[in-house]
TrEMBL record:
Residues 11-401 form the RsdA/BaiN/AoA(So)-like Rossmann fold-like domain. Residues 194-348 form the RsdA/BaiN/AoA(So)-like insert domain. Its cofactor is FAD. This is NAD(P)/FAD-dependent oxidoreductase.
Length: 403
């Protein structure tokens, strides 16, 4: 390659100082590689900073390949098995960062997500990693000996380039389509990106009865899909002004496709149809009061209105058929979202660089030696609960060990 004479030379340039990029840079630096990290943001790892409500759900003790969505579900196995939640936990413990398990294996910092950023920065410092921030990259070209990058702070050359610029979620804090643009430049296939782990919305007129319920939260079973592709989660559901959110809906949103229904069991442990019929002989209560012993009263009012039931009716006076219908509606409430809150609110981007283009051991592009994609840029998307960071760490390490 006819390298520009003034280009500063590195062994590795990592573009993106987020979770995967910093992890990759620290591992490569500590192997003695000369590493430069470039990011267009002024601050390191903004997403880590805001993650987990500021406490960063940094991994999940139970993380395994089944917790990830991808067109090729096997792809993530190798990296995940070689860098496990326990490996990251050992790092956390070495830095004496206090943490706790919230539920279902989700590990959070006791104090602040900043602890994780400081730890990754310290790990990079141990590897003498260099930084260009804020700094954009306008061009990447490939020659016989490596890559030449044009940056806002002058050209740099490197044998390896790692693209760690993430997905499209939360453009406000710096998300761009950089990884997909570079993928296209090198003729790599991309699995259509779309918002995931995102609140779902409903047509305004059909949502009207539920608007006053905004803020109500309850544990539900939520599912979507059919026999072959059914996904189901038991998590908290949150009513919002425009639709549904909370962990339950964020989880199911990653599996949901436009036009599909979601089904919510508002009382997963109760066969409400049976309870209502049984209550005919044992209660003098009206429908609204009876249901209020199972669900928040405001929610009962909204649901009865939406399903066309009069809450003042005495249960004893109602036909079994009507009671069963109501019970089934509560145990299997079917809704069709009209969309999602989009990248503005999505925690991650589903899709990305097609994994068939990459080595599952190293994240290197099969057709372009020296070019790597790690983290959320790749078509590997974790469930809610610390899985996305575990993928960022594991894929970052996989590349960091070989670049
Ligand atoms: P990441 O997005 O972290 O980093 C990409 C970097 O590239 C950024 O620093 C960005 O500035 C830079 N960049 C982008 N475009 C560029 C360009 N054109 N030029 C130069 N630099 C560029 N996950 C989890 O496991 N537990 C959790 O608690 C949470 N919580 C959470 C909350 C919220 C609000 C969001 C939005 C997301 C989460 N996530 C999460 C998801 C998690 O944050 C995400 O999956 C990882 O940060 C992905 O790591 P990456 O390193 O791939 O991208």
């Amino acid at each position: 390659m006819a390298h520009d004479k003034q280009a500063t030379q590195y062994d590795v340039v990592v573009i993106g100082a987020g979770a995967a990029g910093m992890m990759c840079a620290s591992v490569a630096g500590q192997r003695g590689r000369r590493v430069l990290v470039i990011d267009h943001a002024t601050k390191l790892a903004e997403k880590i900073r805001i993650s987990g409500g500021g406490r960063c759900n940094f991994t999940n003790l139970h993380a395994g390949p089944n917790n990830f969505l991808s067109e090729n579900p096997h792809f993530c196995k190798s990296a995940l098995s070689r860098y496990t939640p326990q490996d990251f936990l050992n790092l956390i413990k070495r830095y004496k960062i206090a943490f706790h398990e919230k539920h279902k294996g989700q590990l959070f910092c006791d104090e602040s997500a900043e602890d994780i950023i400081r730890m990754l920065k310290a790990e990079c410092d141990l590897g003498k990693v260099q930084w260009r921030m804020p700094c954009g990259v306008s061009d990447i070209s490939q020659g016989e000996q490596g890559f030449l990058l044009q940056t806002d702070q002058g050209p740099v050359s490197a044998k390896s380039v790692v693209i760690a610029t993430g997905g499209l979620s939360i453009p406000k804090i710096g998300a761009t389509d950089f990884s997909y643009r570079i993928a296209k430049q090198f003729n790599l296939k991309i699995v259509d990106p779309r918002p995931a782990l995102v609140p779902l919305t409903f047509e305004a007129s059909s949502w009207e009865p539920f608007v006053p319920l905004s803020g109500i939260s309850l544990e539900v079973d939520i599912e979507t899909g059919g026999k072959k592709d059914k996904a189901i989660f038991r998590e908290d559901l949150l009513f919002t002004h425009r639709g549904l959110s909370g962990p339950a809906v964020l989880q199911i949103s990653s599996f949901w496709h436009s036009g599909q229904a979601i089904r919510v069991n508002l009382l997963p442990e109760v066969d409400l149809a049976q309870e209502l019929v049984d209550a005919k002989t044992s209660t003098k209560k009206n429908l609204a009061n009876f249901l209020a012993s199972y669900l928040p009263a405001r929610l009962v009012d909204g649901l009865l209105q939406a399903h066309g039931f009069d809450g003042n009716l005495k249960i004893a006076d109602m036909q079994d058929k009507r009671l069963r219908l109501l019970g089934e509606r509560m145990n299997r409430w079917e809704l069709i979202p009209n969309g999602s809150e989009g990248y503005r609110k999505a925690e991650v981007t589903r899709g990305g660089v097609d994994t068939r283009e990459l080595s599952q051991q190293t994240m290197e592009v099969k057709q372009v030696p020296g070019l790597y994609f790690v983290g959320e840029a790749v078509d590997v998307t974790g469930w809610l609960g610390g899985f996305n960071f575990q993928w960022a760490w594991a894929s970052g390490v996989a590349a960091g060990q070989v670049v």
